[in-house]
Amino acid sequence: MQKRGFLWSLTGISTVVGFMLTVQISSRPQGASAPISSYVDLRTEIQAQMQENRILTDEIAKQRAQLVQFEAAQGRQSDLLKALQQDKQNVDREAGLTPVSGPGITITIQFDPNLPYYDKTAGLFDEIADQEIGLIVNQLFANGATAIAINGQRLVTTSSIRLVSSLGGPASLQVNTVPIVPPYVINAVGDVDRMMAVLTLNNVQAELATMQEDCIITPHRDQKGVTVPGYVGRLPGTWAKEVSGS
Amino acid sequence: MIWLPVLGLILGVGIGFAVNVTIPVAYSSYLSIAILAALDTVFGGIRASMEKTFDGAVFLSGFFFNTLVAALLAYIGVQLGVDLYLAAVVAFGVRLFQNIAVIRRIAFNRMHTRRTRAPEGGHLPPADSR
């Protein structure tokens, strides 16, 4: 009789324990071992991944198109040569070796003595012209510019904007190691609205005005608005040659 | 009959999944302590039954009382900022292992007794052959 009572009690208690266990397991948050630091971090991560995915997808599409082109030209020397030349043109264009034109903006920076004089900042541009122009160029590249030239010098991946000065003498701005003189004219082909927006947002004109530098930004929305010349300087492979047999 | 508690456990799990009740994560730790207390009571009951000292009223009251007090202790600990639930975890944990050890020993003793008895009975010659 005692054993029977024990069994029934134990059965009832087991049922309750089973229920409690299930509730506990169901209530435990899933994936708690890898906590997400914050929603913002996750969102940023997703956006970065999507951007990377988009770039890689574009790259795959380009490579496939090239593969199709090469396959189609297989066995025919003239077609293959044409395909290779086309490929070279594409590479040249991507590398900035060919002139391009299209909608864009022109920024002209020049000294204007009629602008208000501020003791602290007047004349400062001559000392930081490379930084200021470098900043503008970076902002444009980050906001829709596809090709930029400063005073006719096309900016490519190996380009440099440097302020070179002799001891005590005047400084000279060099782009691609070529000296340039004011007025500095920046031609940029790309998304006009985005480029104008970033320049407005960063108060470029007002900032340069404090240094008595007049900054004129002119949008060219028509198809032949701005022409940016191709890069004509030395290429990275001019001096450095691949070592054969290594 | 021995399978009834196992069936009960399965039934409880089934009910849990069927009703799909969840509790807030904040209260999850209280339920954990309550489950530990419940398991301690269950093993205590099995031990008592094997030692022939089982009392149904003590068992049932112990189950509910221990479960509630354990959860309450954890709650008070949270309110005071002291990890009081650790006391419950240690106390119930130690008791749980003690009970399991005693159950194991009793089970081994019973098995040993059966083994020692069986061969003696098996070799005994029939009464009419003596």
TrEMBL record, chain A:
- Residues crossing the lipid bilayer are 6-23
Taxonomically, the superkingdom here is Bacteria
| Record keywords, A-Z | Coiled coil, Membrane, Transmembrane, Transmembrane helix
Q: Which residues form a coiled coil?
A: 39-73
The record, for InterPro entries, names: DUF881
Give the similarity note: Belongs to the UPF0749 family.
UniProt xrefs under PANTHER family:
UPF0749 PROTEIN RV1825, UPF0749 PROTEIN YLXX
What this protein is called in its record is: Uncharacterized conserved protein YlxW, UPF0749 family
Taxonomic source organism: Alicyclobacillus macrosporangiidus
Q: What is the lineage of its organism?
A: Bacteria, Bacillati, Bacillota, Bacilli, Bacillales
TrEMBL record, chain B:
Organism lineage: Bacteria, Bacillati, Bacillota, Bacilli, Bacillales
* UniProt similarity note: Belongs to the sbp family.
Bilayer-crossing residues are 28-46, 58-78, 84-107
Q: Which UniProt keywords apply?
A: Cell membrane, Membrane, Transmembrane, Transmembrane helix
Chief location of this protein within or outside the cell: membrane
What protein name is recorded for this chain? Small basic protein
Q: Which organism is it from?
A: Alicyclobacillus macrosporangiidus
Q: Does the keyword Transmembrane apply?
A: yes
> Pfam families, alphabetically?
DUF1290 (PF06947)
Membrane topology per record:
Multi-pass membrane protein
Recorded GO CC terms: plasma membrane
Location(s), subcellular: Cell membrane
**The keyword Ribosomal protein is annotated on this UniProt entry:** no
